[in-house]
Structure to design on (381 residues):
């Protein structure tokens, strides 16, 4: 396949607003800044990625501003003006920077997009995926009452979503799940705690076992694997890890320790598509199903998620609802559409989604172009 040579990188910082606030155990999101990364190859083709950060370091330690800083000062100087023979090399090239996975993923995914376009292939084909359509689930933020939650669930079940994920936290958990399960005895239902509990809550959490949940996502600390393995020993509901998994190595250790039975793969959280593929393959070898988590992305990030989800071990519906379900306006020209709970993977080259320059302009805070590998910092060769 043809290599690419990065001539320019443009960082477009935009502002996006949610249709309605999204509440998790760490807070409420209403608007956020996102940095769209445009990588331009010497032939003039553009590839797109996005920072799947929020404005505050509450889900993990990165924010949109830290990602921008790391991109400008370290990651772009390392990659610009270089020939890249395959995007699978990029993660390794960026390993001189410790962590900052979301910043790394933003540019790595843009490189996968431009590379696929240059080679006239849809991204899923370059990734090795075969599924033509992906099953879609919906993540619902914490609601004011169990009744409001049941009405939201009802709406999404009727729209055809194949899995319903409910955010829980102390005070908004057992009763909320019980009411939803009573109203919908047979749906694929799961809970996401975003680290709101500790091992002291074992007896409390065990009450969830009676509701036949597909899984409980990240009940304990964001940086824990060991306590999760203790909890898994006590609970029949499968534990899925989200926040704890930042790399292939984290996944390997979690599986070895029995800290989870399912893994949520987020491209941003693990530093890009190459690391996502490695985690996917590792899980497949260990009979650990995976699914694609969401980070309230725009249509760009959502498109990357769709292509990744075509890999064979993505057997559980992902949080891949069209971004138009969340944001007032998207920045891609054609809305992603869900039909009967599935989204067709775009067949065009790369991610198969086009940026709307008009929508981008409307939401733009600033665009910064980088054309040189100059940095005040020593960048290891
Ligand atoms: O834990 O999965 C999570 C959003 C922001 C931060 C963390 C999470 C989420 C979601 C969003 O659940 C789901 C989506 O994007 O559809
Ligand atoms: Mg989660």
């Amino acid at each position: 396949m043809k290599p690419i040579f990065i001539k320019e990188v443009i960082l477009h910082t935009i502002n996006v607003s949610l249709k309605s606030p999204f509440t998790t155990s760490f807070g409420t999101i209403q608007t956020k800044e996102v940095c769209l990364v445009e990588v331009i190859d010497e032939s003039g083709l553009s590839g797109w990625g996005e920072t799947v950060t929020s404005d505050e370091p509450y889900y993990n330690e990165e924010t949109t501003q830290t990602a921008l800083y790391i991109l400008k000062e370290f990651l772009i100087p390392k990659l610009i003006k270089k020939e890249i023979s395959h995007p699978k090399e990029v993660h390794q090239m960026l390993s001189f920077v410790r962590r900052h996975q979301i910043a790394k993923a933003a540019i790595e995914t843009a490189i996968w997009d431009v590379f696929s376009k240059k080679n006239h292939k849809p991204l899923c084909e370059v990734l090795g995926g075969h599924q033509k359509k992906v099953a879609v689930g919906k993540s619902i933020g914490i609601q004011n009452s169990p009744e409001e939650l049941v009405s939201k669930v009802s709406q999404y079940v009727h729209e055809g979503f194949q899995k319903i994920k409910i955010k829980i936290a102390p005070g908004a958990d057992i009763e909320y799940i019980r009411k939803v399960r009573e109203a919908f005895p047979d749906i694929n239902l799961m809970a996401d705690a975003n680290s709101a509990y500790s091992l002291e809550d074992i007896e409390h959490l065990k009450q969830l076992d009676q509701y036949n949940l597909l899984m409980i996502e990240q009940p304990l600390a964001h940086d824990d694997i060991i306590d999760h393995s203790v909890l898994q020993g006590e609970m029949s509901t499968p534990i899925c890890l989200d926040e704890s998994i930042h790399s292939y190595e984290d996944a390997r250790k979690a599986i070895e320790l029995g800290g989870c039975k399912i893994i949520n793969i987020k491209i941003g959280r693990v530093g890009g598509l190459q690391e996502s593929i490695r985690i996917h393959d590792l899980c497949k070898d260990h009979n650990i199903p995976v699914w694609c988590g969401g980070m309230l992305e725009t249509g760009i990030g959502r498109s990357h998620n769709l292509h990744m989800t075509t890999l064979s071990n993505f057997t559980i519906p992902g949080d891949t609802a069209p971004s138009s379900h969340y944001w007032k306006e998207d920045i891609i020209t054609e809305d992603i559409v869900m039909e009967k709970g599935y989204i067709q993977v775009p067949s065009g080259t790369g991610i198969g989604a086009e940026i709307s320059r008009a929508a981008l302009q409307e939401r733009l805070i600033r665009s910064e172009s980088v054309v040189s590998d100059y940095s005040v910092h020593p960048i290891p060769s």
